[in-house]
Amino acid sequence: MKMQRDLDKLKKNKIFIKTFGCQMNEYDSNRIFDSVKKIGYEKTEKYEEANCYLLNTCHIRDKAKEKVYHEIGRVKKIFRSKKKPLVIIAGCVAQAENEEMLKREPYIDFVIGPQAYHKINDTILNYSKKTKKIEETEFDAVSKFKYLSKIKNEAGKVSSFLTIQEGCDKFCHFCVVPYTRGPEYSRPFNQILDEAKYLADTGTKEIILLGQNVNAYENEGYRLSDLIFNIEKISEIKRVRYTTSHPKDMTDDLIQVYKTSKKLMPLVHLPVQSGSNKILRSMNRKHSIEEYLNTFDQLKEINSKIEFSSDFIIGYPGEEDQDFKDSLNLIEKVKFINSYSFIFSPRPGTVAENLDLIEKKISIQRLEKIQTVLFQNQIQMNKSLEGKIIDVLVENLTEVKSKAFGRSEYMTSVIFNGKMNDIGKIVQVKIKDSNRNTLFGEIIPNSDKKVA
Ligand code: SAM
Ligand code: SF4
Ligand code: F3S
Which fold does the domain 389-443 belong to in CATH? Predict the structure, then answer.
């Protein structure tokens, strides 16, 4: 009765969720919404009509905290003459800063870390009774996923994320993730398969398995390779991907999946960070360039269509010209088709926090150089597809609705003359034109019958 009253009160509640950071935060934001829906919340895309504002934050690089306070400043302005919304800070900044945030910004009502989302409904429902601000930041991945597995994943998208692993035990010297996401935890195998089946039943055609160290997945002897093997048996699922992997966990069983799998896509995103063994050692990366190249060679031998993408950190303390050249040499060898590169950003609490920085001007020059080379590879790869016919999984219509949007096997955006009823199908598209990020083409009529 009382619970019903609380629910009735919340019936017209609207939540606005803003997400920063990686795909795992996107997954979490979707699941937070799946959860608060149960207590009567609707989603809104308009700040001003929300009475609950949730910011899902990322702490990976500099200025993360400032971004949060800046966002709250904007909300404050919008709500100056209205009733204040419930303001919740979730995600990795919430985990790292917790009580500090509540002290510094009284406008925040509660902070909740990434492994406490199972408590979000109760926290919202009980909020009005509390006199004290709330902070939920314990690491409890078991309870989080136990709770989330009882609430359906309503992503219902053609391409949906599915988190299988959370946290990290690697402690790279530059990275905050082990502190914000806690120790490595792998969800139970059957819990994941159930979620995958539900996604397939509700329209998903591509599953992207997620984890901070997705290929470290291990639960009761099951590995990532077993998950891929079982997920691809679901007939509605046409494509499987996984991200983000650590080079050290590219075990033989995972490499061998590329021999047998029909649905695992040929793009391997394998962050290397630097091409120099000296820098890798001082980053505590636990792998060498030779080991990385060995994985690359093995995969290429299994399937020459496989391409790599990566992450690079530029200007890590101690990076000399030769180390930077080593990164360029690695790019020359591997020909990454798509990569992210960032200047090193010292993070609080990490080993590299207080190391001597290299000159900013040099870091900027190196970043520009590496991005020029990486972008050239990307442009060349896309150019090489002009005139060719490729398989495209159709995700949506473009904003103006005149064209369709899909993705190639390598995750590149493809815009073409598709229709509403192509959504969810794999069709063939003849590529006519391209730029760095997008391929443009024309659909081959009835081609979904050939590739389905
Ligand atoms: N687990 C993945 C791995 O081992 O490579 C990476 C996950 S991390 C969330 C994503 C990327 O952020 C990293 O690959 C790295 O390139 C970048 N990154 C992490 N910490 C950084 C820092 N302090 N400064 C600059 N870039 C950073
Ligand atoms: Fe961060 Fe390293 Fe863990 Fe990746 S493996 S999440 S870079 S500590
Ligand atoms: Fe950012 Fe946390 Fe992801 S720090 S990159 S949101 S794991």
Answer: OB fold (Dihydrolipoamide Acetyltransferase, E2P) (2.40.50)
